[in-house]
Amino acid sequence: MGLPANVLPYSGIMLGIYTQHNPMGLRPIKFESMPPARLQIAKKQITAFFDAAERKVYSRRDLSTVLSQNRNNWHLAQGTTSSDFIEFLSQKTQLKEVNLKSDKYVLPPRYIWGQASPYLLALSVRKGGYLSHVTAVSLHSLTDQIPKTVYVNFEQSPKPRSGSLSQESITRAFSNRQRRTNYAFRYQDWQIAILSGKQTGRLGVITTKGPQGESLDITNLERTLIDITVRPEYAGGVYQVLQAFRSAKQQMSVNALIALLKGLDYVYPYHQAIGFYMQKAGYEESRWARLKQLDFRYDFYLAHDIRDKAYDPEWRLFYPKSFE
Fold first, then answer.
1. pLDDT tens for each residue of 257-281
2. pTM
3. Region label for 266, one of left (φ > 0), alpha (ψ between -120 and 50) or beta (otherwise)
């Protein structure tokens, strides 16, 4: 008498559709999980969707949304789960799982379709971010260097403006080292530094094309110059800031810069440092003199914790003596 149609013989083990019979006590056979058949049938459509999408970096939630929005178009079973979908993409397509590493922090994995730049990975950490500081300096071609740290800024919630300013409070604040973010992740030989900047409503943020043709949210030229004046350590130091001002000389709009400064509404008189940089970088007097029309009530500092200082009475500014 033959075996039932739903039972297969193999080394003394009889396998049913739902159960495994092993009367001789042999080691069970392991089978690799297979993707649901309809996913395999729809593979060409699914691949075409991701190939055509401008987006290259996804979270698990993003992929779950893609599945729910396209389930009917791709004729997928209602029982196909997000895990099924992601496992299929990982095994059968060019989707790759990427983990941003840190000694202190944990992020859920990212999923990359094809190739994705570290800039896109940085922007994927949270929604609403934009590239800034030395990353923006590089992408605006204001330096020949290719910095291996990507700075991405996610704005804080709105907060009340700090209290009144005094010479004593300025001196005290700038006598200490400027705080730096330790919220950072590693990806290959890149570092991604996460900043929590003041709420600006993304003032001066634009979308531009990156080195791989990808769309990147980034501070515009004038906002970038302001940001690196405020945080020179995130640009490599005051000498690199000066070099960025020199490189931007033909492109920078003083009108746009002053309008942004007023919109950013800083407590400290950063216009004194900006005017100083412009003068040192060889801008025409008619341009840097515009900054002279702003408030000059206090002595100010080009950077924090300057050990060997010189003083410029024209800009009421302390700066490193070696800067001369």
1. 999 999 999 999 999 999 999 999 9
2. 0.85
3. beta
